Amino acid sequence: MVKQIVLAFFGSIFPAILFNIDRKKIIWGGFCGAIGWTAYLVVYNHINSNVMAYFSGAFIVGIYSEFMARKLKTPAVEFSIPGIFPLVPGITAYKTISYIVDQNYSLAYSKGMQTIAAAGAIGFGIMLSSTTFRFISMIIESSKNNKYERR
Questions:
Q1: DSSP string of 53-70, one letter each residue
Q2: CA 133 to chain centre
Q3: What's the pTM?
Q4: 74: which DSSP letter?
Q5: Which of 41, 24, 30, 28 minimizes the C-alpha distance to 8?
Q6: Alpha-carbon torsion 92, 109, 121, 65, what sign?
Q7: Which of 13, 32, 71, 88 is the most buried (most CB within 10 A)?
Q8: What are phi and psi of 150, to 5 degrees?
Q9: Which of 129, 147, 6, 144 is nearest to 61 (CA)?
């Protein structure tokens, strides 16, 4: 498990370098991928559901990205894009194409649906975490403004 987390860390650093993210933020992008993969592993080991594990990992990546974006005053995308790289279901997409080439359409359909479900869970996890974080920030900001208006 530790080996997978370390590989997820490096699997997030290299896309950050590829996308020319600021050098000071590359390590934080690596931590984003490692934290997301850790969440994936924990949920998968407890629930044994790929879709929920992908969703949980992406949700954690999104929350971490939004938090670090506020802390380092940078766009959240600089952390979320490298952070989801370890979660991308590349092997299932590859197997889908491989089964299509081999004309094994029933397995291709099965793997294709797994790929689509995983991609949807990742997208929904990032979207929901971003929306939740911004909603909570808006409520906190609103309560601060109301507090100052009462004085």
A1: HHHHHHHHHHHHHHHHHH
A2: 15
A3: 0.89
A4: S
A5: 30
A6: positive
A7: 32
A8: -70, -20
A9: 129
